[in-house]
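INFO batch 0412 | record 1 of 1 | parsing
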Amino acid sequence: MSTKSAISDHSPLEGLVCSREPETRSRALMERAGRHLGLSDATIAELVSPQEVRAFRIPCKILGKVIVLWGVLALHNNARGPFKGGIRLASDVSLWETVELARLMTLKTAAVDIEFGGGKTGIRVDMAEMYRVFGRTPIDRDFEKIISLDAVEYYAKAVGSLFSEHHYVPAPDMGTGPDEMAFIYNETQDSASVTGKPEGTPGWQPGRREATGFGVSYVTLRLLEDRLNVPARRAAVAIQGFGNVGSYAARYLAEAGVRVVGVTDSYGGTCRTAGLDIDALVAHVEREGTVRGFAGGDPLLNDQIFALDVDVLIPAATGHVITDRNAGGIRARAVVEGANMPTTMEAMDILTRRGIVVMPDIVANSGGVIASMEEYARSLSAAKMPQERMFQTIRDLLSTAMDVTAARSDELKVTLTEAAVGIAIERVYDAMRGRRMI
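INFO prediction complete | emitting C-alpha cells
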C-alpha cells in the first residue's frame, strides 16, 4: 500500500528538511491504526513524527589515521519514558531509516508495556572501506572491533550529556555490543546511562546479552504451539542471520528440541534436514567468523534460506530482506521477525494473502528492551537478578503481549502486526494526552 496520503502533507520534519520520507511500513501501519482510532490527520502526523533529529560528524583517530564518520540521532517519542534505542553501525545508515528505527522502538516499548520511549543512533561505517583504507584483509574481527570501539567512544564524548541525564539511554544494535557500551559507561561513569553493558561493568545484569535471542525463541515456541499446532520436537526452523540474536535464538530453540535446519549470515550459509548441531556451529563461527564452510551441513546460498520448507522462518539480521520479490516463494508457515523491519509492507500483504502468519518485530524481538528495562531499573541498586529471573520477566511480558495482540487480532479480524501496532498507538496517544504533549 502507498503511504503518500494527506497525512504525509502534514509531516513537520519533511517540511523542515525539504525531503519526503520514503514509504515505510511503520508509518503506514501507524496511519492505519490512527485512522481506526478516529484520530485527525494532524494528530497522526504528530504521533508519526520524531521529537528531535540530529545529523552529526565525528572525526575519529583510528590506528594513526583521522577517519570522519557521519551519523544520525533520532529521538522519536518519550511520552511513556526516556528515549531508548540502540547504536547501529552500518554502511547504509540514513536519516529516514534512523527515524523509522526510532519510531519502531516507540511502538515496541508500548506494545510490551514498559516505560521507555523510542530513539536510535545510526553511524555510517563502511567496514569494507575500512579494510581498504587500512590495508587489512577480511575477515579480521579484532580489526573490526577497533573500528567499532573507537566510533562509539568518540560519539559518547560528543553527546555524553544526553546519556548521563538519562534523556536518551542507548544499547547495543547492529555492529555494536557490550564492549562498546562499556566505553559509554567509561565516559559517563553512570551505570544507568547505558544498557547492554558487559559482565563486571557496574549495573550489568545476567541474561541481558542473551535476552533478544531468548525472547525470539520463546515467541517462536509459543507460535508453534498456539497458532501452528506443531510440537517443538516436530518443528523445523530456518534462521537468517547468526549474530547475537540469531545465534542465541538457535541455541534456545535447539535446547527445546526444535530442528534448526538452515542458517545464513552475510558470507553464506549451511543447512541440514536432520537439524544442525548448533553448539558445533557456534564454535565454527567463533573460529572462522562466519557460518560459511561449516562441515556439519551442506552449503546454502543466502537467498535460498527464504525458500526452505520449514514451519517457521526467522529473519534475524537486517531490515527489508523479505520483499515483494521473494515473499511469494517463502514456504514457511510463519515468520517470526527477529530483526527490525525485515519484511516490507508489500511483502507483508503478500504473506497475509498466502495465509502465512507474521509475528511482528515489535513483539518478537522485544526481549532485549525488556531486559534493558530491568538493567536500567537496577543499575543504581548494585543488586543483580539471576538470569532465570530475567528470563522469567521476559516470558511474562512477552506472554501478555502475545495474548493481548492475538485477542485484538481475532476481535478485529486484522493481522497480528496491525493488532500490535494498534495497541501501541493507543498507549502512546493516551500518554501524550495525559501529559498534554498533544
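INFO post-check: The radius of gyration is 21 Å.
INFO record closed
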